[in-house]
Write a structure and sequence with these properties.
Layout: H1 3-16, H2 45-54, H3 57-67, H4 73-96, E1 99-100, E2 122-124
Length: 129
């Protein structure tokens, strides 16, 4: 259950002791396609269903925390409600925001381009697109 935590803890300890960096490979499974246009037909449905039922890391960690008495069902429900509310607020903000300025398309590619020194322009693009 806590293998990633343990691997990261060991890597940090090793680095702090002068042992250098550690590469941690964490293999996971994408539950959806790469983007909205990708229906992920390349993923066997049985594999995906089994993985979601047995290896969902969020669900498994919730069950672990419940079994250890760290949280209650009400705690988990409260977090889920706060996440949903924060998502909806962010989504609403994004939908209500104007498109970025077309000239800002390359900003943020390099640390030196000044992107992080100012807010990007707004109002570009096609309204309502």
């Amino acid at each position: 259950m806590l293998e990633v935590y343990e691997a990261a803890r060991d890597a940090v300890e090793r680095a702090r002791e002068g042992g250098g960096p550690t590469l941690i490979e964490s293999v996971s499974l994408r539950w959806r396609g790469h983007a909205g246009h990708d229906p992920a037909k390349y993923m066997p449905e049985e594999l995906l269903e089994r993985y979601m039922a047995e290896k969902d890391p969020v669900k498994n960690f919730q069950e672990y925390l419940l079994s250890e008495g760290v949280v209650t069902k009400e705690d988990i429900d409260g977090v889920a409600e706060r996440v949903a509310a924060e998502f909806e607020a962010g989504y609403g903000y994004a939908q209500a925001s104007p498109f970025p300025e077309p000239g800002d398309v390359e900003l943020g590619l390099w640390a030196e381009d000044g992107y992080w020194d100012r807010e990007p322009g707004r109002g570009g693009g096609t309204e309502g697109a």
